[in-house]
Amino acid sequence: MTVEDSRTAADVLRPVFDETNGTDGFFSLEVNPHLAHDRQGTINEATRLFALVDRPNVMIKVPATLEGVAAFQELIEDGININVTLMFSLEQYDQIAEAYLSALEKRAANIYNLRQIASVASIFVSRLDTNLDKMLEVFKTPKAEALKGTIAIANAKIVYQHFKDYFLSERWTHLEEKGARLQRVLYGSTGTKNPNYSDVLYVETLIGPNTVNTIPPKTLEAFLDHGTVALTLERELDEARSQLNDLADLGIDLNEVTRQLLDEGVENFVKPYDELIKTITEKKMELISA
């Protein structure tokens, strides 16, 4: 059922994929989240799903755990489209961008096709503020108060600067000349969870070239109603860096926070996956017994 549904979804999006020459119109299907810390298991499952769905506009979701990063590089080398998910930190982004370029270089060295490979690096945004705001609350200082609702955006903006470092480099130019496609930055978890913040906060502030924003329906409705379209992703970069430095000055380790979010994210993927499998199994048994 999952495979058939994925084929149907990919077919619905296929006109967009064709009209944009393979830039947009992708459907993502995740590997079994129980394999998040199993490199070879992830490789096997992603390879299996990609072959079964058999659509050029399907991406397989792989979480950005240490094992997932290693699996991602091998999968790109094998020519499989990958959506790297559950990314929260600059450290994760650098690992994935480096793995992507390295994988394409190996394919190029073997004279394999690069053009058909597509990938996005999915940075989760609002969840970071949700966690950090709770931590900042305990300080009860103006400096800590001023950082609330700012770090996720600051983090996302600096990730984009690193994206430019990788994909405006001479190293990337050599790959692009051989047909390689940019690995775009995708901003996920962009619905505003804190009612005190603008309901379009994580959309208006993250608009820039070669990015994707998977906007939740309610947030999209709000943005269409009163959002502002402007190139904002590279505005106030000095302020963003200052905010990240101020967070560190308070003794909050952003890397540790993002590692915890990754662990929680994997667990949050496991629960609904298990519930889905249970429901499908029960329904299957009902049909067999009928």
Secondary structure blueprint with pairings:
Layout (H helix, E strand, L loop, with lengths): L1 H18 L7 E4 L8 H15 L4 E6 L2 H12 L4 E6 L2 H20 L9 E6 L1 H12 L4 H6 L3 H17 L2 H7 L7 E5 L12 H4 L6 E3 L3 H10 L10 H13 L4 H36 L1
Parallel strand pairs: 1-2, 2-3, 3-4, 4-5, 5-6
Give structural attributes.
290 residues, alpha/beta, 6 strands, 10% strand
Instruction: List segments where confidence is low: pLDDT < 50 over at least 5 consecutive residues.
Output: none
Q: Which band does the percent of strand residues land in?
A: 5-15%
Integer average pLDDT: 95
Largest sheet: 6 strands, parallel
The spatial strand order of the largest sheet comes to 1-2-3-4-5-6
**Gyration radius over CA:** 20 Å
Structural class: alpha/beta
Number of strands: 6
**What does the overall shape look like?**
globular
Give the helices and strands as they follow along the chain: HEHEHEHEHHHHEHEHHH
* Number of distinct helices: 12
CA-CA gap between termini: 19 Å
Helix content: 55-70%
How is this structure best summarized?
Helix content is 59%, strand content 10%. It is of the alpha/beta class and 290 residues long.
Structural description of this entry:
The protein is an alpha/beta fold. The protein has twelve helices and six strands. Strands 1-2-3-4-5-6 form a six-stranded parallel sheet. Strand 3 (82-87), helix 4 and strand 4 (119-124) form a beta-alpha-beta unit. Helix 2 packs across helix 3 (66-77), helix 3 (66-77) packs parallel to helix 4 (90-109) and helix 4 runs parallel beside helix 7. The longest helix has 36 residues, at 254-289. The chain starts with a helix and ends with a helix. The model has no long low-confidence stretch (mean pLDDT 95).
